[in-house]
Each structure stands twice: as structure tokens, then as C-alpha cells.
Request: fold
Amino acid sequence: MKNKEPLILVVVVAFTLLTYWLVEPFAHSQMHKHVESENFAYADLPAFTKSGNAANGKTLVAGAAACTGCHSIDKEGMPAAMDAVAAAQSYGVNPPDLSDAGAIYAPKFLADLIKNPAHALKVEHKFDAAKGHMHPMVAFYGAGGDLDQEVADIIAYLQSIAVSQEELTPKVAFENACGRCHSVSYEEWTQIGTKPKFKHEKDSLAFDIKVLEYQESLTKYMGKLPPDLSMYIRSRGEHFISTFIENPQNHLAGTAMPRVGVTAHSAEKVIEYLEDAGDTKRHERESVGRDVMWYILIFAIFAFLWKRSVWKELH
Amino acid sequence: MAHFTKATSVKDWLNQRLAIEKVEKVMASEYWIPKNINFLWAMGMVLAITFALLLVSGIFLLMYYNPSVDLAFDSVNYTIMREVDFGWLWRHVHGVAASVVFLVIYIHMFTGIYYGSYKKGREMIWISGMLLFVTFSAEAFSGYMLPWGQMSYWAGMVITNIFSLGGLHLDGLVEWIRGDYVPAQAFLTRFFMLHVLLLPLAIMGIIGLHFAALRIPHVNNQDGEEIDFDVESKKYLAGDKAGSKVMRFANDFMSKDMMVVGIYLIFFFYLVFFQYQFALDPVNFDPANGLKTPAHIYPEWYFLWSYEILRPFSVNIGLIAFGFAQVIFMLLPWLDRSPNAVPASRRGAFKIWFWLLLIDMIVLTAMGKLPPAGIFSTIGFVAALSFIVLWLVLPIITMNEKKV
Reply:
């Protein structure tokens, strides 16, 4: 009698793969909107071509543009006017420190942001100046010269003080771009900074109260408390997070989450940070996986040889 | 009292007390298996190995899991996945095995249906097998609650809610099952108990019954051949290993079991390390939130076909159809009226019935996951109706089957 096993195997594998394809790739393609990456090109924003003068930018930042009225630049010894909790009570969210902004955000985004914050952030549905809903960041209308040149100078200054692309760590990218709204409890990150290890419970609770106060302002500002991102790399996946950061409106029209304007490189760093938080053991999984596959392969070969030697006598 | 002599060896000492030689014969070397079987007959061993993987990985997970609504999610996703050495490995093994075990169960079940292995004295094998399917389903569902993610919570909500639907209106029963008005601490703790104690005990007991049910009727074979096991085993023991139609369970059949297990484990560990998303649903990596319903709530893939039988009808008819789907497989040995215990390929109309049922269940599975709208809800409705019709016509087509 001829051996039917190869045919049976083909039938079993074919039905299994068909079922898998139907309930996984196919079903998910029908359930979720697919958003293509735009490669962080920000094509809707005007091109940024002017080269700036960092020295002039420095004068503007502290002077006519009044950036430091709200933003700190720790690196240059310019501290914040208020602590995070008080700042959030005033603005809704703590304005970011600008030390590394030049490395994290795309220049064309920064240029548009300085001139028209709600437009660059894609929150004009929420902050409509005509209706009197002003974005807490005041637009820069120029210091008397060529506005675009002045903006370019400011950006040149921010780039001159920022870390280089190679030095930009996942932690710095995340904390700047996402961390003032999102906590990551698995990394001890709160919206007001990494929670220190306190010796006394009283100090720990005092810190928690500050976080709660900050979150109260933030909730009022955003409509709801932005979610903790500890497990987002597993619950949303890299593609979703990356395209969501690029333009939240593409996924969730009307969301209060602003477009944060990171460069493609910073977005990768943000993803890496989330992988370190929610998929910590991925490298170990790959290396252990390879070893186990080899081990099982050798086991299967020995099992096959054993079967062959036993069955030799049966035929 | 039995007569004991001074033991000549450790083996003899044990033999006098435990009859280990006899046990070994009954369980292994003189447990006779037909030779004309294919690799589908190794699915029992594959299931036993998968169950062992579930048990061992489950024991490791149990050491760190915390069944409290405030801590469960973090004990799984932080403590086990980040802090505990190889905790992630145990979780992935446990999650993937829980899903793959159903794939193998379905293959095992459809093998039984195809070869008529529920007939002529093998009814108890089928029934105990279906009881295992039911207990494994309960085990899978209760285990799915434990990480206390969004899908745990909402699946728990939707499934327990079934009893309150339509004409049933058993709201009191729903509250009794949940121990609360909504899934909360009482719900999590009792499903934890079910998952780690009561259901595993039941499963192990029924596995014993399933094995015991095989002893007297013996394993079926792929040709529907009636084998005289006494004659054939004597032939084997007399030295005519090649001429006998049967072989020892161990090491003869065991060696083939292990070969299949080896190939299966390559597939299994590939899934564990490189393709695990299908078994660890992304939605369940969001912590449970009773105020935020996920956009799509769907069961794990192995429940989708019966979920889809519930869904396309009006509430009361859906509940009846769902109840029908839960018990109908159990009745197969009596619904199949044909005396032929041969492969479906030789049974005329039954052959068509078999493949239609298989395809129908795959269609139901796919539609059970897809949003019930437009063409998908029409396909789902037709497939659900077909499922019921297929089972209703089974006695008729098998009654008219010619004896082969």
C-alpha cells in the first residue's frame, strides 16, 4: 500500500495555514485602519531652507522671542520659572526644557511651531484663535527683521546646544517628546520626572501627591489623563506607535494628542525606549530562541534515527 | 497476605510489591498497537507533551502570579516578564501552548471523525475526549482571565453575560458566577482557583479515563481493518515481528510518537520565540478598564466557530443554536447511524459531509473574528445555518449508507 502520510501532512498544514491567515492577518486587516508611514517628512509643512545664525538665535531666545519666559534651558544655565506642578497649573502641561529640542524635533516642524503652534501640533480643532481658544504657547511674530530668518536663527541656536544625533539616547528622546504627558510606571517615569528612591515613606508620598496634582492639571488640559505607556510596545506594536507619533490625527481624528514633530531618528529612539520598558527581554528571547531551535532540531534528528532503527524490524 | 521472599535485586523487591514487570507489560511492551496507522495517531502523545509543557510552565508562573485585581496585570507584565529570570519564557510557552493545544485537539478530533474512531465499542473514547475538550475550554477561558488585561475583563464580561440574554434572563446566575455585579476581585479569585486547581484536577482525571477507554477496544487503524489482537500479538511474540499486524506501544510505536513530537516541537518553539502574537493578544496588554470597552471584543481563535453560531441569529434562536453546538459533537456516535467503521473516503455521502463540516467550521472561525457587518455577517449566518443543517442530516445520510 502506498504511503499516504505526505498527502495527509499537506492537508493538515494547508487547513492550519488557511485558518491562521483568516483569523490573524486577514481579520486584523479588516478590523484596523492601516496607516502608512510618511517617513516623518511632514509634507504639509513649508520647507525649511534658510540657514541660521546661532549667536543671533541665542539673543532672540532670551530676548525678543521670550522663549525663556516659559521654557527652561538647563544646559545654558537658564532654569524654569516654575516647578512642573505650578507650570502645569498655569499652562495645562509643563513647557519642555529646550536643551536638546534642536536634536529631537524636525527643523521644519520647529519653524512652523514657533510661528503657529496649534498648526504645527495639529490641534487647531481644539485651539481656534477665532473662537478665543488660544494655545498656551504664544506664537512668535518676529523681532522686527525677516521673521523666517529669525526663526532659522533660533533653530540654529537650539541645534548648536543640543546633543548630537549619535548621543541622543532613547531616554532623552522619550522624556522630551512624550514624557510630560505620559508616565511609564515600569521605568519609574512620571510626568514630572523619574521617581527617586526615597528613604522615608513620607517623602515618597509627597512625591506621589505632586504627580497627582500635575496629573489633575494635565487631565483638565487634555480631556483625559494620557495613558501609561509601559506595555504599549506589546499592546500597539511598533508600526502603530510610529505612525501615531508621526500624526495622531491619522489614527484618531480629533484626538487632543498633539503631533510632536520628532525626526525619524528620534522616533526610533522613542520606540527603543518603549521596547526597553515593555519588551525588555527581546534580545534574550532571540538568542535563547536560536539555541532552543538548534537543540530541538538535534532532538528531532535523533528521534527520527531511533524510529528508523526500531521500525527496521517491523517491516 | 501475599507471600514475600527475600529479594534477589531491587527490581525483584519492587516486583514483589508493585508488580512492576506486569505493569510495564500492560502499559507498554504488551500494549498492542496496529501497524497500519499514520502520524495522525501520534496526536495523543503530542497532546500529552503539550499538556506537560502547560503544567510545568504553569507551575513556574504560579510562583509569581498574584491574583488580585490591583496586582495581577503587573505581576504578569512586570514581575514575570521583566524581573524573573526566564519568566518571559515560561509565559510565552504557557500562552502559545494554550493556543496550540487546541489546534492539536481539533486535528485529533477530526482524525477521529474521519476514521470513524467513535464506533463499535469506541464510544467512551469519543465521549471522554469530548469531555476533555470541554474541560480544556474551561481551563483556557479561566486562564485567559488571569492577566487581568482588557480582553480578560471584557471576555469575562461578555461570556458570563450570556446567561442573562434573551428568554434566559438568568441575571441571578450571572451574579452568582461573578460573585459581583461586574467582573471584579471575587470573579478573578474564583477563576484563579478554577484555573490552577479544580480544572487541572478534572483534566488529569479525564485523561486517565480517556486512556482507560482505549484499553478494551484498542486503537483504530487507518484502513478500518478488524484486527484480532490476540492472534497478531502471539505472532509478534513468537518472533514474526514483520509478519504481525500489530506492534508494541513501547518502543515500537513510541519511537514514531517521538519522531512526530520532535517535528512538532520545532514548530512549537518557533511559535514561542518568533511568532507568538497570535496567542498573546495585543489588546490584553492594556490593563483591565471597566469604563473603556475595546473596539473589537473577540474570543481566542479556538472558540470563534461556536461564538459565530451564537452571533448571527436573534438572541433566543442564537442561544439555542449555541447550546446545540456545545453538545452536538458529544452525540456523534449515535447520530452516525452507519455500521461502517472505515475511513470517510470509503463512505460515500459521509465523505462529503466530513469535508463540508471541516470547511464550514473554518468559515465560522473566520467570521467569528471579523466584525459582524455587511458580507461577513451574511456569510456567518449561512455558515451557522449550514452547521446546524449538517448535523441534522447526518443521521439520514448515514442510515442510507451501504455496508462496506
About this structure: Chain A touches chain B through 52 residues (CB under 8 Å). The two ends of chain A are 13 Å apart (CA to CA). Residues 45-280 of chain A form one domain. Strands of chain A lie at 189-190, 193-194.
